[in-house]
Structures are given as structure tokens and as C-alpha cells.
Amino acid sequence: MSRSDSAAFIAGYPLKAHNTFGFDVCAQFACRIEHEAQLMAAVRDPRTAGLPRLVLGGGSNVVLTGDFAGLVLLVALQGRRMVREDHDAWYVEAAAGEPWHDFVAWTLSQGLPGLENLALIPGTVGAAPIQNIGAYGLEMCERFASLRAVELATGAVVELDAKACRFGYRDSFFKREGRDRFVITSVTFRLPKVWQPRAGYADIARELAAGGHADAAAPSAQAIFDAVVAVRRAKLPDPLQLGNAGSFFKNPVVEATQFEALKVKEPEVVSYPQPDGRVKLAAGWLIDRCGWKGRAMGAAAVHERQALVLVNRGGASGAEVLALAKAVQRDVLARFGVELEAEPVCL
Ligand code: EPU
Q1: Which fold has domain 243-346?
Q2: For 155-206, how does the pLDDT look when each residue is reduced to its tens digit (9 = 90+)?
Q3: Is 176 annotated as catalytic?
Q4: Does domain 9-75 have CATH number 3.30.43.10?
Q5: Catalytic residue among 80, 170, 232, 289
Q6: Does residue 247 line the site of ligand 1, with CB under 6 A?
Q7: Which residues of the chain have pLDDT under 70?
């Protein structure tokens, strides 16, 4: 084993800069992973054997409610490349530690469209499959080819295809049976050569039209990228300025009968019919309707422009954010009979 492949543990490591809520907590040990071999060394090291482990990329989908008594693996694996092409598609691979948005921008700069709707999503490439990130009419799973991961218990390297990852709406194998068992080290995306713009999402269509794009009816991938960036900047808080983890709740999916009854009481409810006959509701609308938009409990607050986002106004703890989330869930359940499920992983 070369020197750079051995694990360098740092004790009492501050995690404030490693979670986008900006919670001021510490890890008992942390280890920065720049090469896959360091990962193997870290998980096999007797000094931390038996301790709980937490993998952090950008820390953009996690609520840390206290100090972490275990080993935090800070995934900083870098690199991106075109791996191959076939008649129908290009295949591009990125290491897990690459910032997601930079990777999306890079694919476009290489003349490879397909990920533009997912511009400006915080976090890393390695975190993208875990919750199957999605926005403005596209989910990551639609561009996914495979991923490489290391199994923590054995150190074995595995390659998983889309079927094995069991992607769902903000969901995957890694949030269920595979939880805490793997470290994703790289992801390969399949970008079809026949590209179709996805500009139907209302906010994006409006932005393209308002931007006076000559090509608003048939936008380029770059125009969609720019529109997504503009819409996100206008609606969603920048974690560097106001701590947050994006949408705090999933949009709930209810049975058609429940939806019909709700629609009678609340005719304006924002909803999206699902292929299976059920109906997805806009959780932001439900929360907004309960009067929570812009309201705070201590230093934790519901964002003023998007009620689905909870923010840390400065100095909030994870527990405060969770208390606010509970209050929001209670009100939405009481008024609409709908349960909201948290999107980030709460530790
Ligand atoms: N709405 C309100 N009040 C609010 C927020 C939303 O009335 O405070 C209404 C909007 O007017 C709109 C509807 O609710 O009619 C949906 O709002 P929006 O288009 O902003 O999207 P969303 O359903 O709230 C989802 C994703 C976002 C993603 C956007 C765009 C989830 C949990 N969230 O939000 O993803 O960017 O669609 O596709 O699915 C994330 O996962 O972290 C995230 C930001």
C-alpha cells in the first residue's frame, strides 16, 4: 500500500462546512477520500472498527441533529470522462466527489446535452443516485447507465445497473435495503444522441418566453440550462447564504378517491395525475395553504418563496429544524389528512 493510500483520520472534525444546513456539529473521526484505495484502507482500519460510518458528499440532503460518534467519510473522488459511445448514446462517467452542477455544465461544454434540466442542484455526483435527484420534468434515473460502489462490510467493488438501484421518486435501493452499506465511487450516465428538449414545466416555459429567447419554442440545451438556473436562483435559497437541504418533504402521492374528496374541499389544490391512477400533490402548496410560508420557530424557518424548503436563518440546530418539520407535518395532516414524508436523511 502506498503512503497516499493509507487512511488519515482527523479526530474531532467540524462538519459545519460539510452540510448545507450549516449545522455546527463534529465528527468523532473524519477521513478525506481522494482515491478508491484510501476508502478500502479507511473501512478496514482497526482504529475505527465497529464504529458507525457516515458518507458525506456535499452534505446537501442530510439533517445532522448532533455530533456524529463515528467515522465520517468525506468523498472527494474527482474526475470525469467520456467512456464510450454507441450508435444511440454517449456514456460519460464522473467520480462521486465531483460537484453535480459543475459536471452538468461540463457535459454541455462537451456538446453532450441531456442533463440540463438538473442544473444547479446542490451536492455531488455520488449523491445523485441515492435520492434519484429530479427537477423540471427530468429525473436522474432517465439518464443513468450504471454506478460503481464499494461495499463497506467487505471492501468489495460492485457495479450496479438501473434495475439494481431500484429508482423511484426521490428514492432508490440506497435509501432502503442498501442504506449505509455502500459508498458510491463513480456514476456513468447515458446521454442519448437524439436529444429532445424538455421545456414543458410551467416555470421553465415561462422563463424561456420571458427571456425573449429567439428559440423559445425549440430551445437549445444551453437555453434550458440557463432558464433552470434562473428559476432556481429566483425561487430556491443558495445554501451558501441561507442553510437548507432543498425540498424538505416529498410531494405526497394519494389514492384517487382521497384526491376527489380533497378537491371538493380545496378546489385549488395543485396536483399531478400519476400513471398508476394515483395523484401526486404539491406539498409546497399544502404547506403554504396552512399559512407556514415565511414562518419561523426559533432560527429554523419555512422559506419565504418556496414553502417546501426549510431554512437555517443562522445558528439553528438540527433538532430545531426537525421540530419545525413536525409542526408543519402536524398542520398539513390536520387540515388535509395527508402525511408528509421528509426527503433528507435525518441522523
Ligand atoms: N407552491 C405553492 N407555494 C409554495 C411552493 C409551491 O403554492 O410555497 C405551488 C407552486 O405554485 C406550484 C406547485 O406548488 O404550483 C409546485 O411548486 P414547484 O414548481 O416549485 O415545485 P415543487 O413540487 O414544490 C419539486 C421538487 C423540486 C424541484 C421542483 C421543480 C420535490 C420534493 N421537489 O418541487 O426539487 O426543483 O419540483 O421540478 O419533488 C428537491 O428535491 O430538493 C427540489 C428542490
Answers
A1: 3.90.78
A2: 899 999 999 999 999 999 999 999 989 999 999 999 999 999 999 999 999 9
A3: no
A4: yes
A5: 170
A6: yes
A7: 1-6, 212-216
